[in-house]
Design the sequence.
């Protein structure tokens, strides 16, 4: 039961649901939501629970609606290049089903082996290849979903193009279960890309690596992935998997190019030059696909490897590419200032950084310092023209950040949209934004009694209400 | 004044505005909308007026807000690959400004030399290259706009990724001025693609050409454009420009490939094979870039060339690619059945067809027959799993089609969203969907007195209310 009450954002509070329903059909989802609507009972939808912002965390005494058993690949149409899937299909299962037809579903969050398409839609998941191929929203053509009033509707289309009405499909994508509960997803697929060429660069400082990222953008390169992994991650993966990575570098940049023919070779050569120009201690085009795969595997293992070391608070800021070096420098300063270990993995080519703040389990003082560092990082990202969340979503952890990023007029637009699609506020209340009376009453953490009834207040323990960037914006 | 009262959908009714304001700054736009909000006066925004659905047509006695003088390219950032432009910037002017930095803004409606970015955003404009490169929504990162309550807000971001809150940017794109008035647009740019290779196929029937399109999709080809031009268009362009095209073919398919290096050559060869396999009388990879440009120029000239022949009612249905041959066959049947000339240009690779129904000016009987054919085409597109509008928008001409395509529950969601963003219903009332009291009162055509007050009724003369597809859906 506990595993269905929360996601992987271990710092975000979670309540105890009254009941968990594991739906097996759209009709069942509709029945549950219709009953919740009648009785004004909130409902929290969830997929695999791999989220990192607390978006799927349960609310005390309410319904959790798990969609993991709706896991059928309904259709792959190789001619139209579309797939129709139920929300509980694992991301990598869709990828495998498409690959059998020579097709490819590009979005690739690092959670791809475990996360569901429904969860990917709820958060507009990104991943490694978005720097060239875009995010979930770029691939979803249509949705079937249950509305906040318990009606089963179809949004979007199956055709390549279409402008019949407002883009409600795109609106629901990334809304974290607060505007509708998705029961079927129609995605566009691409032809499988050519085999990729990997370029690795080893750097002695994270800021040098950031400069290499900015240099590659200035050179006009479009890698299919451009990932950064720092020494903390390399060491944690080594400790766990004994791969010997951390001996060779403090920071690794991994780039991939999948242009066909000689164009990929040329791009790889130019990337090597960018790495070297930015001060790489070693930069090379991989000639060994197995070695290249191992490097990307290490990248994907970084998060679980760090989780073995303590409680991990995951950041997800995204800044303009030119600001990557400065943002990385500021993260290092925050780590020193607050005496906290901050590891960095990053979709560096997108400017989407994942500083990971690690504390010993049970060390309350370290936790407070980590929270202060988290607040500093959010403030720095906004100051550099960035956003508080690149791909993980707002959930619970980034609610104060969202209020700092958006103007009050834009927050009002959000509330209006929320009320339009969920008039009784039963869909995942307390997440993303407060919009209705049920949000006010949503008790999310058993330990937050002092915050209960405070409405839009941050969940206890998740965000320091005296954070400097909140003061700056007049909070 | 007349030219500012309507767009190019000559069959859509237009009223006479009380006043036209040609704004020169976001502050002026805000002042106008705030005044309209206070006094509950509708306001119709417009760019260059190249729309084809009547979306920018004036309403009797209300304000037209022209944005064509806000035509500044504010910024091109080659490192972040973004451009910031005012809404009145011409599409081709943005393209030219980007090209100076080696960058490219892909969406390319055939109106690109005359249409504005603001209008492109309002309709989510597509064009020739979307089959590979997507539509306007795929490129817009952020917007500045004036809301229905007269507030100036920023939506979206400048970063590559971001999920902070609902995708209101995407929601406003394609909303045809009914959810906000855009005052600045931030778009992402791409690196300029390599020079394209053109493949031309000549066919003796439009259905054979449709089969070639389906065959190329089945072969897994991803052309950067795949356009169809039929004999009516070829003859009209010949009449006008004397290019000698119609002597050689009944239907031409034009494909472009811009893969780098030899990959483009290989794709072009495979496309020639697809054309020949589907019965092309002649299929060739162009070796002469000037000749290839002339063929695409003819494609772009087709619409204005046909306008010289009579009143043109433009269709914009989009069907699954596999249904392109069947849809083209049904269009031919409709032409015969209603004794109407229907020319076809199509973004065939997207399944986005533009049958053009041509009647003599002043021939009321032909006009009625054309209207019946228009209704049949819409019904056929829906029956084949398509949408009533691929890229032109709903405006006035496709309002009945929208009601046929969307369920009443989804239409209710639209109305809720409209009311959330435009609570007094002052933004372009009477277009897309009826949502508020001002829509009911919106007198769009001076000649529609018998329809005034009927609320969501079709504008007089634009759609036959006895259309068979309306009956089938319970209208």
Sequence:
């Amino acid at each position: 039961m506990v595993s269905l009450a929360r996601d992987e954002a271990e710092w975000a509070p979670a309540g105890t649901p009254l009941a968990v329903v594991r739906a097996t059909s759209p009709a069942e989802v509709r029945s549950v939501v219709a009953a919740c609507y009648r009785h004004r009972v909130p409902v929290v939808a969830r997929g695999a629970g791999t989220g990192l912002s607390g978006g799927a965390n349960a609310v005390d005494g309410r319904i959790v609606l798990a969609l993991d058993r709706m896991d059928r690949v309904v259709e792959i149409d190789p001619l139209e290049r579309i797939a129709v899937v139920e929300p509980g299909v694992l991301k990598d299962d869709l990828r495998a089903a498409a690959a059998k037809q020579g097709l490819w579903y590009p979005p690739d969050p690092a959670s791809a082996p475990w996360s569901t398409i429904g969860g990917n839609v709820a958060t507009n998941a990104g991943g490694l290849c978005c720097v060239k191929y875009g995010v979930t929203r770029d691939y979803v053509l249509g949705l079937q979903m249950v509305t906040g009033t318990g009606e089963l509707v179809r949004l979007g289309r199956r055709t390549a193009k279409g402008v019949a009405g407002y883009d409600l499909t795109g609106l629901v994508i990334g809304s974290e279960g607060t505007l509708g509960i998705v029961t079927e997803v129609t995605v566009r697929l691409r032809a499988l890309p050519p085999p990729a060429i990997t370029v690795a660069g080893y750097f002695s400082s994270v800021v040098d690596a950031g400069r290499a990222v900015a240099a590659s953008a200035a050179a006009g390169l479009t890698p299919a992935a451009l990932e950064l992994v720092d020494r903390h991650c390399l060491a944690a993966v080594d400790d766990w998997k004994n791969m010997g990575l951390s001996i060779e570098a403090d920071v690794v940049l991994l780039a991939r190019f999948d242009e066909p023919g000689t164009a990929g070779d040329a791009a790889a050569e130019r990337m090597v030059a960018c790495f070297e120009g930015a001060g790489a201690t070693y930069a090379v085009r991989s000639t060994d696909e197995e070695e290249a795969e191992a490097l990307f595997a290490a990248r994907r293992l970084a998060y679980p490897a760090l989780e073995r070391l303590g409680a991990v608070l995951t950041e997800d800021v995204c800044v303009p590419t030119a600001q990557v070096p400065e943002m990385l420098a500021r993260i290092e300063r925050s780590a020193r200032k607050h005496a906290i270990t901050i590891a960095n993995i990053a979709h560096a080519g997108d400017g989407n950084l994942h500083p990971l703040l690690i504390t010993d389990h049970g060390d309350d003082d370290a936790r407070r310092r980590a929270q202060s560092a988290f607040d500093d990082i959010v403030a720095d990202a906004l100051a550099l023209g960035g956003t508080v969340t690149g791909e993980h979503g707002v959930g619970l952890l980034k609610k104060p950040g969202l209020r700092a990023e958006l103007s009050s007029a834009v927050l009002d637009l959000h509330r209006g949209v929320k009320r339009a699609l969920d008039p009784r506020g039963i869909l995942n209340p307390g997440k993303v934004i407060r919009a209705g009376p049920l949000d006010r009453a949503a008790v999310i953490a058993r330990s937050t009694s002092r915050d209960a009834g405070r409405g839009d207040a941050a969940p206890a323990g998740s965000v320091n209400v005296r954070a400097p960037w909140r003061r700056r914006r007049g909070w």
User: Anything to note?
Assistant: Residues 446-475 of chain A have pLDDT under 50 and may be disordered. Residues 364-383 of chain A form the longest helix (20 residues). Chain A touches chain B through 88 residues (CB under 8 Å).
